[in-house]
């Protein structure tokens, strides 16, 4: 247990040193050490027992509990230090969100990847199968819309597109998907919203909030 702020070395930034420090690739045991792409961390997210960071170069590193594959390493091993997600190297991850047992990320060109626990369809893949490696969601589900913001609740997920449309999926016992019922969804479903334009979306453990612009 750490009860006070604790520095986690992800990228070396000391003056006079190479700003690309080391990351660990693969399992924490017997991991290979390489250079981390990027100069600084630009995004962070915390799930139930795992964490994720994104560098300015679009590299995704994860660490923590890995039982459901939520670290995206292709296995169920825990990651004891920030570890590169190798299958996403070069995709340019822009945004990241972490739920209780799952993780979502959006690339700079708007593609969505999901991995981890999927008991309630929270990955949006159309099944309840756990994914230990990042799986790209089908672009057809969003009618070629570009995703800009993604958020994870405990067992549900939501995203906002550039043109202000909201999609939600996963656990829906309390109506947190905003679809007018309490039926779980395992694919992204558009949330009907009229009279305003959503600008941001955030998922709580069992609920969802939007910031909207009513002037449009």
Automatic annotation (TrEMBL):
Please give the Gene3D superfamilies that the UniProt record associates with this protein: Regulator of chromosome condensation 1/beta-lactamase-inhibitor protein II (2.130.10.30)
Q: Which UniProt keywords apply?
A: Repeat
Q: Where would I find the RCC repeats? A: 58-109, 110-163, 164-214
Q: Which InterPro entries match?
A: RCC1-like_dom, RCC1/BLIP-II, Reg_chr_condens, Ub_ligase/GEF_domain
Q: Which domain of life is it from?
A: Eukaryota
What SUPFAM superfamilies does the entry give?
A: RCC1/BLIP-II
* Residue ranges of every copy of the RCC1-like domain listed in the record: 37-211
Tell me which PANTHER family the record gives. Answer: REGULATOR OF CHROMOSOME CONDENSATION, REGULATOR OF CHROMOSOME CONDENSATION (RCC1) FAMILY PROTEIN
Q: What is this protein called?
A: Putative regulator of chromosome condensation 1/beta-lactamase-inhibitor protein II
């Amino acid at each position: 247990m750490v009860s006070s702020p604790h520095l986690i070395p992800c990228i070396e930034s000391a003056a006079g040193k190479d700003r690309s420090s080391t990351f660990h690739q693969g399992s924490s045991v017997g991991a290979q050490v390489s250079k981390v792409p990027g100069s600084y961390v630009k995004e962070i997210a915390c799930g139930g027992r795992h964490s994720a960071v994104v560098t300015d170069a679009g590299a995704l590193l994860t660490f923590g509990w890995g039982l459901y594959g939520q670290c995206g390493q292709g296995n169920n091993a825990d990651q004891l230090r920030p570890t590169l997600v190798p299958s996403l190297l070069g995709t340019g991850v822009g945004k990241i969100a972490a739920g209780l047992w799952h993780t979502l990320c959006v690339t700079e060109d708007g593609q969505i990847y999901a991995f981890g626990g999927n008991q309630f369809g929270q990955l949006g893949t159309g099944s309840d199968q756990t994914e230990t490696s990042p799986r790209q969601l089908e672009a057809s589900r969003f009618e070629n819309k570009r995703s800009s913001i993604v958020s994870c609740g405990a067992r549900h997920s939501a995203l906002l597109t550039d043109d202000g449309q909201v999609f939600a999926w996963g656990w829906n016992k309390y109506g947190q998907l905003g679809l007018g019922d309490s039926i779980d969804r395992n694919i992204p479903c558009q949330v009907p919203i009229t009279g305003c334009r959503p600008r941001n979306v955030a998922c709580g453990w069992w609920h969802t909030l939007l910031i909207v612009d009513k002037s449009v």
